């Protein structure tokens, strides 16, 4: 026991990391269904332990919609759609349209194949 205290927070963290180590290692870079969320007011990306950094990471509360999408299994928005509120709404509309069996609309200015 580090420091001689049975309730030492580092021992609890170490035990939790040991439990996750094998599963995270076999999951690869996709995360294997694991995601990480942190509150921006309490910590920063630098505080994320190195073994957890490959996981999809969400900064709360700003990225709560993305976390909720990940938890329900929705694919992440393309990078071009992540910019601002309008981009996020556009992504949701495109996603809903694709789910109805119709092809998604083309972005403005994209040539139509004939």
Automatic annotation (TrEMBL):
Any GO CC annotation of this UniProt entry: membrane
Location of this chain's protein in the cell: Membrane
Transmembrane segments: none
Segments forming domain SEFIR: 9-71
UniProt membrane topology term: Single-pass type I membrane protein
Region annotation (Disordered) ranges: 94-114
Protein name, per record: I17RC protein
Source lineage: Eukaryota, Metazoa, Chordata, Craniata, Vertebrata
């Amino acid at each position: 026991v580090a420091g001689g205290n049975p309730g030492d927070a580092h021992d609890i963290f170490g035990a939790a990391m040991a439990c996750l180590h094998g599963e995270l290692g076999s999951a690869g870079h996709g995360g294997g269904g694991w995601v990480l969320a942190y509150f921006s007011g309490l910590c920063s990306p630098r505080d994320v332990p190195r073994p957890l950094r490959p996981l999809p990471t969400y900064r709360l509360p700003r990225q709560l919609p993305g976390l909720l999408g990940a938890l329900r299994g929705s694919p992440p928005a393309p990078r071009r759609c992540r910019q601002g509120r309008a981009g996020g709404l556009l992504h949701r509309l495109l996603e809903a349209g694709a789910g109805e069996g119709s092809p998604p609309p083309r972005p403005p200015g994209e040539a139509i194949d004939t």
